[in-house]
Specification:
single chain, alpha/beta, Aspartate Aminotransferase, domain 1, Aspartate Aminotransferase, domain 2, 2 domains, seven-stranded mixed β-sheet, four-stranded antiparallel β-sheet, 16 helices, 13% strand, globular, binds pyridoxal-5'-phosphate
Length: 479
């Protein structure tokens, strides 16, 4: 492509991008296509001769856009948000243009040095103690994997990487039953075995019970196993529960277990001092992760991983073949040694853009507003006679269900709420996802989209009530 052509196309696409951002509310939130529909619109094989960019872009709009779920829609209340913002998108354009592969300091000193700097900005913004060093990972799953691998190496006296785990006592890992599924996956990948993962019972607030942790560790030690790692959750995915870090850290310290804190979503709320109670006791943690790509207006991917002992992480992951040596090896940070993939994008730039453009005060106001909106919505649900909260509003997330008078059968209620969820999402007006709370089917409501305002939350609540009350529970009961 000639540069003049690139310039023209880029201007046209930026116009489209701005129109998209301004008009995203006109789209159905969740894609409304059945499986296979988009694939059927795409050519069976690659073109032999190059095509005109105008034609490609027209096909993007016609054939691809219907298969997009609009995560940047202000009526997106599903999963957790993956919110973005204009400054973040601008930075991504520059990152893509530079096309730098930032595996070593030398392969782009600015990327490495900015990463160190903005992660320390984030550390200060979240109230993490000094001494935590940060790195950007692609996901919280990857950060937790790095934590488990470091824990594994520590627990094996740094023998796991060399000798494998055969001949070692079984290494055990602990989290609450509300902990994220990425921990299960990471335990599998780290070769620790899911049989050695303890998902412990929780208290009435869905938080890890320290006594249950203590007991599980004692039982494992008695059986000859070696407790290697505890993953505490701050803001669990299902209900937003917060594990008691201070008590958990105390137990870890006593047993020499590594403590990793998974705050993938809720970490962003720590920029508000009134939420720092959630990390009371964080001094005892070995590592901490949260995702600016969830709730800090920085588009996917950008996961902030903080470690207390970077040397332990590097010792776990570094490999130095001849072709990756550089004159500065050992003097500078080579972030390739801090993560599983070798190659890395220049992801710090978008954080730098976002934090500088908005400033901490504005980011705080936006997060505080999301929390306030979620609380308001939860209060409406609680006040409605035919709805109930199944888990209270934690941070900016609550779980509820429709429960009309006279229906008490749990299977019928489950089916009714499942039907409600599908009808709401099929309408395209909003997007919610499901959960199980105490065995009951629940609808999760998470507020955190960049553009979400009170009117979107109000409209969602209106749609939920109207759709629920139009359902006929008898047809479901008869199924
Ligand atoms: C979203 C989430 C994850 C996974 O995040 P990825 O960045 O997609 O890997 C892990 N833990 C918790 C608590 C989460 O909410």
């Amino acid at each position: 492509m000639e540069i003049d052509e690139f310039r023209r196309q880029a201007h046209e696409m930026v116009d489209w991008m701005a129109d998209y951002m301004a008009g995203v509310e006109a789209y159905p939130v969740r894609a409304q296509v059945p499986p296979g529909e988009i694939a059927a619109r795409l050519a069976d094989g690659p073109p032999v001769e190059g095509e005109d960019m105008g034609a490609i872009f027209a096909d993007f709009q016609r054939d691809v856009m219907p298969g997009i779920t609009h995560w940047q829609h202000p009526s997106f209340f599903a999963y957790f948000p993956a919110n973005s913002s204009p400054p973040s998108v601008l930075a991504e354009m520059l990152t893509a243009t530079l096309g730098a592969q930032c595996m070593l300091w030398q392969t782009s000193p600015a990327a490495t040095e900015m990463e160190t700097r903005v992660l320390d900005w984030l550390r200060q913004m979240c109230g993490l103690p000094e001494g935590f060093a940060g790195v950007i990972q692609d996901s919280a799953s990857s950060a937790t994997l790095c934590a488990l691998l470091t824990a594994r190496e520590r627990a094996t006296g740094w023998r796991g990487n060399e000798a494998g785990l055969a001949g070692q006592p079984a290494l055990t890992v602990y989290g609450s039953e509300q902990a994220h599924s990425s921990i299960d996956k990471d335990v599998m990948i780290a070769g620790l075995g899911r049989d050695n993962l303890r998902k412990l019972p929780v208290d009435a607030d869905f938080a890890l019970r320290p006594e249950a942790l203590e007991q599980a560790i004692a039982a494992d030690i008695a059986a000859g196993r070696k407790p290697a790692c505890v993953v505490a959750t701050v803001g669990s995915t299902g209900v937003g529960a917060v594990d008691p870090l201070r008590a958990v850290g105390e137990i870890c310290r006593r047993h020499g277990a590594y403590l990793h804190v998974d705050a993938a979503w809720a970490g962003s709320a720590l920029i508000l001092p009134e939420w720092r109670w959630m990390i009371d006791g964080i001094e005892a943690a070995d590592s901490f992760v949260f995702n600016p790509h969830k709730w800090l207006f920085t588009n996917f991917d950008c996961s902030a991983h903080f470690v207390r002992e970077p040397d332990d992480l590097v010792r776990t992951l570094s490999i130095l073949p001849e072709y990756l040596k550089s004159r500065e090896t050992g003097e500078v940070i080579d972030y390739r040694d801090w993560s599983v993939p070798l190659g890395r994008r220049f992801r710090a730039l978008k954080l730098w853009f976002v934090i500088r453009h908005y400033g901490v005060a504005c980011l705080q106001r936006r997060i505080a507003r999301h929390i306030e909106l979620a609380r308001e919505a939860a209060a409406w649900v609680e006040a409605a006679e035919d709805f109930e909260l199944l888990a209270p509003c934690n941070i900016a997330l609550f779980n509820f269900r429709y429960r009309p008078a006279g229906i008490d059968d749990s299977d019928v209620l489950d089916r009714l709420n499942e039907a409600l969820l599908h009808q709401l999402n099929d309408s395209g007006a909003l997007y919610l996802t499901q959960n199980k709370v105490g065995g009951a089917y629940a609808i999760r409501f998470a507020v955190g989209q960049t553009g979400t305002e009170q009117r979107h939350v109000e409209a969602a609540w209106q749609a939920i009530q109207a759709t629920a009350r139009a359902l006929d529970p008898r047809t479901l009961a008869a199924e």
